[in-house]
Specification:
Structural class: alpha/beta
Oligomer: single chain
Number of strands: 7
Shape: globular
Distance between the termini: 60 Å
Helix content: 40-55%
Number of helices: 7
Length: 266
């Protein structure tokens, strides 16, 4: 995502605050015009005005709740038909942190719709156009909880595990094309997602909390370095390399038609 030679468009979901708002700022600084998607029109308009003044970017806002079918279709249509779109940042997400037995099923379904269904549908919408131009970037925001589940994060961790594996599959599918996919796995980040999560940000160790600005700047630096999978808070990248190698070894070990010897009858 280097500075564009002409005005390409980056679409950012969940752009009214936090990670999405910072992505909007940074991508405008890199020369992109923007389409910003979020529920809160007033915040989107204020951000659009600020970015336009700062960078001279053209900024369109789409007030949309991606949990609603009609709103999701509107965004899908833009992604599929606007020939200037080159970047999609799938950032909109929802986290509800509490045990399943204490959670309304509607909370779980809302997380699935926003964190999985919307990401999948928007990717479906934009991908054919990007492939037709052999040029584009999809950034999917997952979470470190994609590889770890807490007693309060069963659904959220499950949705982010989907985002990670969905992104990795896409990366393999698109390896020989000009379309790139980056998946970013933030740890605890100071955003408004915590307000309704069930775990207030104030309850967490401040030393473990990254600012949204640092998160996005690290993610973009990772993209510039060619990273397909970016762990902004992990200093020792060999940890991921070892984890991934072990995952691959385990998968290879499953490729047999015989039950493991330990399951043989005595």
């Amino acid at each position: 995502m280097s500075v564009a030679t002409f005005k390409k468009i980056a679409v950012v979901t969940g752009a009214s605050s936090g990670i999405g708002a910072v992505y909007a700022d940074r991508l405008a600084a890199r020369g992109y015009d923007l389409i910003l998607v979020a529920r809160r029109a007033d915040r989107l308009e204020a951000l659009a005005e600020k970015i336009s003044k700062a960078y001279g970017a053209k900024v369109e806002v789409i007030a949309a709740d991606l949990q609603k079918e009609s709103d999701l279709v509107r965004v899908e249509t833009v992604l599929a038909t606007n020939p200037a779109v080159r970047v999609l940042v799938n950032n909109a997400g929802l986290g509800r942190l509490r045990p399943i037995a204490q959670s309304p099923v509607q909370e779980s379904l809302a997380q699935i719709v926003l964190n999985i269904t919307a990401v999948t549908r928007l990717t479906h919408a934009v991908l054919p156009a990007l492939l037709s131009r052999n040029d584009g970037v999809i950034v999917n925001i997952a979470s470190v909880l994609a590889i770890h589940s807490l007693p309060i994060s069963s659904v959220y961790s499950g949705t982010k595990a989907f985002v990670l594996n969905f992104s990795r599959g896409l990366q393999d599918e698109l390896a020989e094309t000009g379309v790139k996919v980056q998946v970013v796995l933030p740890a605890t980040t100071a955003t408004e997602i915590w307000d309704a999560s069930g775990v207030p940000l104030s309850a967490l160790d401040p030393d473990t909390v990254m600012t949204a600005e640092n998160l996005v700047d690290a993610a973009l630096a990772g993209f510039d370095k060619g990273e397909a999978i970016t762990w902004p808070s992990v200093a020792d990248t060999s940890l991921w390399d070892k984890y991934d190698a072990a995952r691959s070894t385990l998968f290879k070990a499953t490729q047999t038609g015989k039950p493991a010897a330990r399951y043989n009858a005595a």
